[in-house]
Amino acid sequence: MKPYVSVVIPVYCGVNTIQEVVEQVARILAETGIVFEIILVDDGSPDETWSVVHRLYRQRPNEITAIQLMRNFGQHNATMCGLRHAKGDYIITMDDDGQHPPEEIPKLLKAIEQTGADVVYGVACERKQAPWRNLGSWIVVSFYKLVFRTHVTPSAFRIMRRRVVEAILSYDLNYTYIDGLLAWNTDRITQIDVEHRPRKVGRSGYNFAKLFTLAMNLFTNFSLLPLQIVSAIGVVVAFAGFALGLYYFVQKIVGNIAVPGYASLIVAVLILGGFQLLALGIIGEYLGRIHLNINKQPQYTIRESLWSSITAVDMASEANNSSSSVDTDNTQIQ
């Protein structure tokens, strides 16, 4: 029996792209004979994206779950919302802009079944996007590899087994980084090469500042490395200051210093003062995130959700058993 597959797509300003993506995903999975569902999470889009998502649901009520969040919570938080609604044996996540080709989905399914991995990333051989965007992605990926000591390259185009998805759903705090949660729960993670298409319309919702914030989420949520680096630098600076002070003390005793140096004093003050401010800033990041999580800043808030009480897998079961027809126009609104 073929597995039941859930495809989770967080959508932000995808009014011009999401319909084509959904149609391609549905066509590819239908051609392979796989029973599937598509979960669309509108992450607080300011345009008419929800109207398009709503229309797609009305066209495919047994295949699509449509969720609208109250504001923009970010791609990873929106994806977590979709994962909580997924019912598949395998869960696939992908972007809404068409850069992740639906034609590569069977390759992901084949890889996870053959390798026995819990997570398989579809990694682009060549990323067709702006150089600054590649730089930001490289920083995030480099931090990920450093923190988790792995050679795997994370990607938003991934397939996961249900058991590992259920393991990460217990995380209900803000500052979500899904790839970090996955790496915390399993080491059976691999990757395959996939095609990466250029964006047809619009531009990425990620700018350099958002990518930097994502990197900070990775470090402060999953690693003490920044604090350890600051501590190490503090030890080195303190030792260097002690050694320099001892050197000048000896020079003063032997009479090699006639007039104290103003420049060296200013340099020392600026270096030590800058380092102290850096250390306080890093500590403040940790404390601020702890404060917000204690106050239970929501991971996401749902404004409206639409889904059918009769799923695609139910329909397949009914067809196999030659049972009577059912009413599929049954929606739930929150």
> Element order, helices and strands?
EHEHEHEHEHEHHEHHHEH
Which range does the strand content fall in? 5-15%
For the secondary structure, the number of strands is 8
At the third CATH level, what is the topology name of the largest domain? Spore Coat Polysaccharide Biosynthesis Protein SpsA, Chain A
According to CATH, the homologous superfamily of the largest domain is: Spore Coat Polysaccharide Biosynthesis Protein SpsA, Chain A
Radius of gyration, in angstroms, nearest whole number? 26 Å
Instruction: Give the name of the CATH architecture of the largest domain.
Output: Alpha-Beta Complex
Q: Specify the overall morphology.
A: elongated
Mean pLDDT over the residues: 82
Strand order of the largest sheet: 7-5-6-4-1-2-3-8
- Flag low-confidence runs: 322-334
Largest sheet: 8 strands, mixed
State the CATH class of the largest domain. Alpha Beta
Q: Report the span from N to C terminus.
A: 34 Å
Overview of the structural elements:
The structure is a single chain. The model is unreliable at 322-334 (pLDDT under 50). The chain has an 8-stranded mixed sheet, sandwiched between helices. Helix 9 (225-253) runs antiparallel to helix 10 (262-294). Helix 1 (18-31) links the parallel strand 1 (4-11) and strand 2. The protein is elongated, with a radius of gyration of 26 Å. By secondary structure, the chain is α/β, with parallel strands linked by helices. The chain is built from 11 helices and 8 strands. The protein folds into 2 domains: 4-222 and 301-321, Spore Coat Polysaccharide Biosynthesis Protein SpsA, Chain A (Alpha-Beta Complex), CATH 3.90.550; 225-294. The protein has helices spanning 18-31, 49-59, 75-85, 105-115, 131-148, 162-168, 178-185, 208-222, 225-253, 262-294, 312-321, and strands at 4-11, 35-42, 64-69, 90-93, 119-124, 158-161, 189-194, 302-306.
